[in-house]
Automatic annotation (TrEMBL):
Pfam families: HgmA_C, HgmA_N. This is Homogentisate 1,2-dioxygenase. It comes from the Eukaryota. Coiled coil: none annotated. Belongs to the homogentisate dioxygenase family. The lineage of its organism: Eukaryota, Metazoa, Chordata, Craniata, Vertebrata. Its cofactor is Fe cation. InterPro entries: HgmA_C, HgmA_N, Homogentis_dOase, RmlC-like_jellyroll, RmlC_Cupin_sf. The keyword tRNA-binding does not apply. Pathway: Amino-acid degradation; L-phenylalanine degradation; acetoacetate and fumarate from L-phenylalanine: step 4/6. Keywords: Dioxygenase, Iron, Metal-binding, Oxidoreductase. Residues 275-407 form the Homogentisate 1,2-dioxygenase C-terminal domain. Its EC number is 1.13.11.5.
Length: 437
């Protein structure tokens, strides 16, 4: 089903008439199903931001054994593990993003690299990476802390949710919102990035003077149709609950994906990045990179985001009298860059698909020296930019901290962080005597 934030209604064709008529919670649901509401917002939120869906399931979610603590290794929301370090950071794919043997999304496959804020006060973000080659069998994850925005870089993911199935490939993204249970099947070595936001949900950015159309269009977002599996797991089905930054497990005898029908506006969704309508400068100078925003998670301050998801897709460069690559910059926001495929235009060496970089608040950053020299002397003609490439950015108004695992060792000083190479220092040359005259 297509659309962003729509009121959807879906039922599995194997169970016709599963949706009640005219009400949400009848005394007896069709087929003896249980009605269960999943709320993604407070009951009293304005109608425009109220998020909820009704699910009609074979057994209710409440039938589970008590939650018990679950051992976790590199998933954390402790932002004080490493001393603050404002330097630019580069994570090389081969050093930090290698695939382990027999790892799944949760069992060692999900690692926190940086973040900020607090899950208890419901304000903040975390950036994780995942590497896995084994599917989640008879287990699922439920994130009570926030939303997951999943960006595959290698390998397809078949994500089973209470709302239906979602197949996500590289150059597509998927959002699993707070409280939605999901399990992941993989088809070989898989790797990617996860942006987690606490307390708010992702929205489409306001378009302002752009007008009614452009950037990520609502009709290109896809939500799964209802699908259920009615199966009893004799050994017990494991529900892993991420709560206040920690993991807990609970056993139940049935699968959580037993929803025969549902309706509402709170559901998982996916989006193909190739559908992004690029807005760009056609005269001179740069438009700000905010024109590449796909999704935003707003803060309470107008125009300031807890997190923006921004992409840099293939496009035309035609600006005259302009240094066309990204300009040198100091920013009050934090910027985490990732690369899905190709070569990023401003850093062709060292920044490889599957790697990442972090530019902290007010830390200078920009293209490397080779890129500067090439672009400064290039003949300015219309040219294709970023063909065969898809880079992205998680940008936040919060000042993100690197985790111990992200720092690369156990030293509190953050040793192991690799600074990005900037332009080599060039001695200033005095102007010719004629110029001085």
């Amino acid at each position: 089903m297509s659309g962003f934030g729509n009121e959807f209604a879906s039922e599995d064709p194997r169970c016709p008439g599963a949706l009640p008529e005219g009400q949400n919670n009848p005394q007896v649901c069709p087929h003896g199903l249980y009605a269960e509401q999943l709320s993604g917002s407070a009951f009293t939120c304005p109608r425009s931001s109220n998020k909820r869906s009704w699910l009609y399931r074979i057994l209710p979610s409440v039938r589970h054994k008590p939650f018990q603590p679950y051992k976790q290794s590199n998933l954390t929301h402790n932002w004080d593990e490493v001393e603050p370090d404002p330097n630019q950071v580069l994570w090389e794919k081969d050093r930090y993003f290698t695939l382990g043997d027999g790892s799944v999304i949760i069992n060692g496959g999900l690692r926190t690299i940086c973040g900020a804020g607090d899950v208890k006060s419901r304000n903040g973000i975390a950036i994780h990476i995942y590497t896995c080659n084994t599917s989640m069998i008879d287990r699922c994850l439920n994130n009570s802390d926030g939303d997951f925005l999943i960006v595959p870089q290698q390998g397809k993911l078949l994500i089973l949710t209470e709302f239906g199935k979602i197949l996500v490939e590289p150059k597509e993204i998927c959002v699993i919102q707070q409280g939605m249970r999901f399990s992941v099947e993989v088809f070989g070595d898989s790797r990617g990035y996860v942006l987690e936001v606490f307390g708010v949900h992702f929205e489409l950015p306001d378009l302002g003077p752009i007008g009614a159309n452009g950037l990520a269009n609502p009709r290109d977002f896809l939500t799964p149709v209802a699908w259920f599996e009615d199966r009893i797991v004799k050994g017990g089905y494991t529900v892993i609950n991420k709560y206040q930054g920690r993991l807990f497990t609970s056993l139940q005898t049935f699968l959580p994906f037993n929803v025969a029908a549902w309706h509402g506006n709170y559901a998982p969704y996916k989006y193909n990045l190739d559908n992004f309508m690029v807005i760009n400068c056609v005269a001179f100078d740069h438009a700000d990179p905010s024109i590449f925003t796909v999704l935003t998670a707003k803060s309470l301050r107008p125009g300031v985001a807890i997190a923006d998801f921004v992409i840099f897709p293939p496009r035309w460069g035609v600006a005259n009298h302009t240094f066309r690559p990204p300009y040198y910059h100091r920013n009050c926001m934090s910027e985490f860059m990732g690369l899905i495929k190709g070569h990023y235009e401003a850093k062709e060496e060292g920044f490889q698909p599957g790697g990442g970089s972090l530019h902290s608040a007010m830390t200078p950053h920009g293209p490397d020296y080779e890129c500067f020299e090439k672009a400064s002397n290039a003949k300015l003609e219309p040219e294709r930019v970023a063909d065969g490439t898809m880079a992205f950015m998680f940008e936040s108004s919060l000042s993100m901290a690197v985790t111990r695992w992200g720092a690369g060792d156990l030293q509190p000083s953050g040793q192991g962080i690799l600074p990005l190479l900037g332009a080599p220092p060039q001695p200033l040359q005095p102007p010719p005597s004629e110029s001085r005259k």
